[in-house]
Amino acid sequence: MVDGAELAFDVDPVIENDRTLVPMRLIFEALGAKVDWDEATRTALAVKGDVKISITIDSAELMKNSKAVALDAPARLIGGRTLVPVRAVSEGMGAKVDWDEASRMVQIVTSEEPSQPEKPEEQEKPDKTQKPAEQEKPIEQDSKDPGPYIPDGFVDFAELSDVDMAALKARYNNLIRYDFEQLSLPRAVIVEHTSFAKEIKNKSKTAESLARDVWNKIVISHLLEIQTNSETNYYIGDIDGDELYETYLSIVKKAGLAAEEQFDISFETLANGYPMMLVTFRNTDTLMACKFLGAVAMPNGTVRYFTAETDLVNKDNLYFCEVTKTKRGTIGLMGFEKEEFIQCAWITIENDLPMAATLERNL
């Protein structure tokens, strides 16, 4: 218990040499400290104000502001987590620690009990002989919104650090685009949304929204992974799912990675009358990525999914490819114009052209 709140650990505390050891990061953060980990030396560093504590796995002492403090039980690596002696690190951070034998509970108080506020002096009553206009008006209180509560050592999750923003943008070229072009979008239109052919025929906003939503959720998933593994401690707090999504989407927009900034969507018609939803990427400088994506509505209610991809070696042409439920492969070469991509889709369907080279892969 820290200041009356119970902490839940993913690894149970242990007792060694009559000393309780608890998972390092959670206890330090509960004490208001920011934590860093040095894998090379297997040393944790916790900083709170002007107090710096470092503790090394299996060491019989910790360092507080460069002074050694002996430990009755060293830090241990258990279950993939670093466990530290709770009394030593808590008292090192200025907290008080008590042990309740009956409940086998460690009670930690990080600060002194707040003192009672002084009773305000009785204000002089206004002179009743004064006219109302002559009486002093009360001073207006500062009503400025203090903003969301952020614990010490944490950063609002809506403000991505420069390092993490750079990491997110670095994933654009390969991870984000590949996932969207070769996995998530074809899986959505071929496998998951069985009525998508109808949406294409109707040129519906639902079809456009689905493609953009798939892209944005991919970027957000990478953003979440980066924040989870970041050296920066992000604080989310009590927030519902819709607000959480909108906040993360605002970060995606700050990064310049939102769907509306990456590609355009149009509805085209093949020479045989089949309707196509065409995705055209604005950035075509990325290697091993697509310039065009086309979802064609077939008469039987299915969707065929085609791509026009760049290549590391052949920069004079695009590779016209198809993705199915079980494989993807190259059908031939094409140029860089939208009309040629649409024509390639028609010729492939009309003549049932095979893939020249295939990669077996289930969506």
TrEMBL record:
Compositional bias of kind Basic and acidic residues: 116-145
All copies of domain Copper amine oxidase-like N-terminal, residue ranges: 2-108
A Pfam short name: Cu_amine_oxidN1
TM regions (residue ranges): none
Region (Disordered): 110-149
Protein name (database record): Copper amine oxidase N-terminal domain-containing protein
Organism: Congzhengia minquanensis
